[in-house]
Amino acid sequence: MKLNQKGALRMSDPSVIIMSVFVLLIIGGLGLAIRQGIRERQQVAEYSAAHGWTVSVKPDEQLTRLLAAFDPASDSFPRNVMIVERSPSPVYFFRYTRRPKDRPSKDSNGFGCFTRSGGMRFDGRVEIFNRTPGVEKLIDDLAKVGSEEFQEAFTVTENVPGTAVRIVSHELEKVMMSHSSGPGWYVNVEIANGAILVSSSWTQSKEEWDYLIDLTKRIRGAVR
Fold first, then answer.
1. CA dist., res. 166 & res. 224, Å (int)
2. pLDDT tens for residues 136-171?
3. In the chain, how many H helices and how many E strands?
């Protein structure tokens, strides 16, 4: 570092300039996050009011317990929780942060829709998500199920052999292919412990939230 005659750092010092830019970037990022948070809360308030749903801004204890039982390997932090349907099978729509317990730095964020499946009970977990060519080689517990067209569009994993072939029925495949040929944005479907979680970080608009909820209901109807 260079000092002027009074011992102060000169503003032309590269380290001072870099530090100043870094601080400005942090402040700008925080300001953007705050504005996005305010805008999203307004969206959620308008969306829930239009449907006649209440919003739990604070973490919902009941849903948190359900998500903990659904996926014991992760910590889930739901907020802005809306109860879409109360009975016979409650449907929750919410903003989430999810963090694997063995990799706490690998958290994910987005919107999710959670409900109980009305059909079969089985051991294990099945996950369905948009396929990225070549990535299968890096995935454990890969399950080859469904038609060739379905396998081209989606990747399926299972942690108990034979579970996926029971879950991925013709009806479920039809629902997922409808999504693939429709909006097609990334979606993650998890079926385990008698429940279904459909989530995506791509849903931003009220129309996309409506679609995610409807997709969850259609998946629930196909899991028999």
1. 9
2. 888 889 999 999 999 999 999 999 999 999 999 999
3. 6, 8
